[in-house]
Design brief:
cell membrane; membrane; Ammonium transporter fold; ammonium channel activity; glycoprotein; transport; 461 residues; 2 strands
């Protein structure tokens, strides 16, 4: 139920108006690129390409499939842990992802893929991957607000989030020429601080009215583990999807794979130590096990070495798990940030770690390790930055991290202020985290599992 207001913008109106607007804008601006239109045959002949297998589709589509599954299944089911908000968790994830990828294709197209000759945006399979990446930042932000905002508020959050993402991505990747193939800075750090700041602005002092709904039950945790496993399995594709063909993608997969494996071991260890009788907390297992993938995003293409990848995963798993144990309760009690999914522990802290690792690894790169051509190719030391040294590159990598944090904090504060307007139909405090599931389902949940109440964003009263 929404708060009393004379004007309320409805979800059907937003969906219909938005889709009509997208049809018009796509008609004006979006076209197929040379590898996805029928003139590909002419392009092959002109570029002396011998086979259709050289089409970017065959390089990128397997990674696109994996990333697409992560966005809709991985992120969606990861948010089903709440005992009475599983429908909303996976359903609204579906809604805002489909909403956001359309706007992302336009926003990223205007910044990166606009053809100066005809003013059109030319898209192919790599644009679809980048649109999913863009939406991922908004889904991360959604995690901080899960169960506390209306679907219309989520669409507004996504509209501005995609816009901010496109701008900060352009600054970091194009103007600063920083490398961030797996998005530790551009996706995770920005998305996390964007969502956390919005949650801080929308702080609900009376949220205790729905405290009995702010935890999980046995079966909701099992569903959330589906999301975890999909994300964990496909994260190497996420970090390598837009990396350089060949050795860059190959190295990104290896580095991410190892970091993820290490973060699982440390998460299980810390979780067992922290719980009575050595039992595990599913909050940690569902989230901190993924921290290695987040932290490896920026440096995934770099020559960080296999044992270096294990170190990254080892440290990020520990830090993320301790975040759930100590940082999240502190944030709510002291900073007034109600982080439903604990995105600060899974995305913000590992994202910052990833940005720092990227800066250090870039600054310490050498020709003896990378080779002369390998160094140029890995960091794209060409054209305007052909004379850039690795020390300077490390400085620009660090600058990129600060840009991501700044956009998240400032953008989140501004968008949070917009979302406080009563026209969006936000739920009352007593109705948060409540899908209004069928009554018999509700009774079964409460009667069968009266003591199951794992929480991730909310400390016990």
């Amino acid at each position: 139920m929404a708060k009393n207001t004379n004007i309320r913008i409805s979800l059907p109106a937003v969906c219909f108006v938005w889709q009509i607007a997208m049809i018009i804008l796509f008609g004006v601006f979006i076209r197929y690129n040379e590898e996805s239109e029928t003139r590909w045959i002419e392009h092959r002949r002109r570029k002396n390409i011998s086979t259709n297998l050289e089409n970017d589709f065959y390089y990128r589509y397997p990674s696109f499939q994996d990333v697409h599954v992560m966005i809709f299944v991985g992120f969606g089911f990861l948010m089903t842990f709440l005992k009475r908000y599983s429908f909303g968790g996976v359903g609204f994830n579906f809604l805002i992802a489909a909403f956001g990828i359309q706007w992302a294709l336009l926003m990223q197209g205007w910044f990166h893929y606009l053809d100066e000759n005809d003013g059109k945006i030319k898209i192919g399979v790599e644009n679809l991957i980048n649109a999913d990446f863009c939406v991922a930042g908004c889904l991360i932000a959604y995690g901080a607000c899960l169960g506390k905002v209306s679907p219309v508020q989520l669409m507004v959050l996504t509209l501005f989030g995609v816009t901010l993402f496109a701008v900060e991505e352009y600054i970091i990747l194009e103007l600063l020429h920083a490398k961030d193939p797996g998005g530790s800075m551009v996706i995770h750090t920005f998305g996390a601080y964007y969502g956390l700041t919005i949650s801080w602005v929308l702080y609900r002092p009376m949220l205790s009215q729905s405290r009995h709904l702010q935890g999980s039950v046995y079966h909701s945790d099992v569903f959330a583990m589906i999301g975890t496993l999909f994300l964990w399995m496909y994260w190497p594709s996420f970090n390598s999807a837009i990396a350089d063909h060949g050795d860059g993608q190959h190295r990104a997969v290896i580095n991410t794979y190892l970091a993820l494996a290490a973060s699982v071991l440390t998460t299980f260890a810390i979780s067992s130590i922290s719980q009575k009788h050595g039992k595990l907390d599913m909050v940690h297992i569902q989230n901190a096990t993924l921290a290695g993938g987040v932290a490896m995003g920026t440096a995934s293409e770099f020559m960080i070495t296999p044992y270096g990848s294990l170190i990254v995963g080892f440290c990020s798993g520990i830090i993320s798990t301790f975040g759930y144990l100590f940082v999240t309760p502190f944030m709510e009690k002291t900073l007034k940030i109600q982080d439903t999914c604990g995105i600060h522990n899974l995305h913000a802290m590992p994202g910052v770690i990833g940005g720092i690792i990227g800066a250090i690894t870039a600054a310490s790169a050498s020709e003896s390790v990378y080779g002369q051509e390998g160094l140029i190719n890995t960091f794209d030391f060409k054209e305007a930055v052909a004379n850039r040294t690795v020390n300077i590159q490390g400085g620009y990598q660090a600058a990129g991290l600060f840009v991501a944090i700044a956009f998240g904090l400032v953008g989140g504060a501004l968008v949070g202020g917009i979302l406080k307007l009563p026209i969006w139909g936000d739920p009352a405090d007593a109705n948060c985290f409540d899908d209004e599931v069928p009554e018999d389902e509700d009774e079964n949940i409460l009667s069968r599992h009266p003591n199951m109440n794992h929480t991730r964003g909310m400390p016990d009263a």
